[in-house]
Specification:
This protein is mainly alpha-helical. It folds into two domains: 3-90, Orthogonal Bundle (Rna Polymerase Sigma Factor, Chain: A); 119-192, Winged helix-like DNA-binding domain superfamily/Winged helix DNA-binding domain (Arc Repressor Mutant, subunit A, Orthogonal Bundle). Helices cover 68% and strands 3% of the residues. It has eight helices and two strands, in the order H-H-H-H-E-E-H-H-H-H. It has helices at residues 3-16, 20-42, 45-62, 72-90, 121-140, 143-154, 159-166, 170-188; strands at 102-104, 110-112. It has a two-stranded antiparallel sheet. Strand 1 and strand 2 (110-112) form a beta hairpin. It starts with a helix and ends in a 9-residue tail after the last helix.
């Protein structure tokens, strides 16, 4: 058992016994990681913040049921994934803020957002175009495939961790993840030249 896992168990036990400071410490320890995962799922700062807030409320309410059979992070990822899927059911409309969107300021003026880059313009364009295409393709996948791809390829969770998070057998995780990769590859096939290194 790692030191981090031991620390988590101590904080969880103290939280179960009514120590609000211990729960606050647990939230502080994992809120950034939770937010990053939620943002990768939603691509919206507001939605990610709402999902993380909802997830930590659910963690607090269900902490008495946590049996430490899995790592706390695995349990937290499961709750965040469930909050994300629940929010998708509640809100079928997708809200995205484009970095190309004009920003209105007081007085009725508008300006285009601009971002500095150290890369050459063509490299910067290709990188941003790859990211746009991948994000666009991910939105076309079923939510569970999108979540699995992000867990495995972005957050580097193992098959075992994903299986625990989603409460699925490892064989099912492997086959669904493989299908998700095939689906993503098919969606990106038209622009395959952008992904040749």
């Amino acid at each position: 058992m790692s030191d981090s896992t031991s620390d988590d168990l101590v904080l969880i036990e103290r939280s179960k016994n009514g120590d609000r400071t211990a729960f606050d410490d647990l939230v502080t320890k994992y809120e950034r990681r939770a937010y990053q995962f939620a943002f990768r799922l939603t691509q919206s700062h507001d939605q990610a913040s709402d999902i993380v807030a909802d997830a930590f409320v659910r963690v607090y309410n269900a902490l008495a049921n946590f049996k430490a059979q899995a790592a706390f992070t695995t349990w937290l990822y499961r709750i965040i994934t469930n909050c994300y899927l629940d929010s998708k059911k509640r809100d079928k409309s997708k809200y995205h803020v484009s970095i190309d969107q004009t920003v209105s300021v007081e007085g009725g003026s508008e300006f285009e957002r601009q971002f500095a880059s150290d890369q050459a313009p063509d490299e910067d364009f290709e990188r941003s175009e790859r990211e746009r295409l991948i994000q666009s393709a991910l939105t076309k996948l079923p939510d569970y495939q999108k979540a699995m791809l992000i867990m495995y390829h972005v957050d580097s969770l193992s098959y075992e961790d994903i299986a625990e998070t989603l409460d699925l057998p490892i064989g099912t995780v492997k086959s669904r993840l493989n299908r998700a990769r095939v689906s993503l590859r098919e969606l990106l096939q038209r622009d395959v030249e952008l992904f040749q290194l």
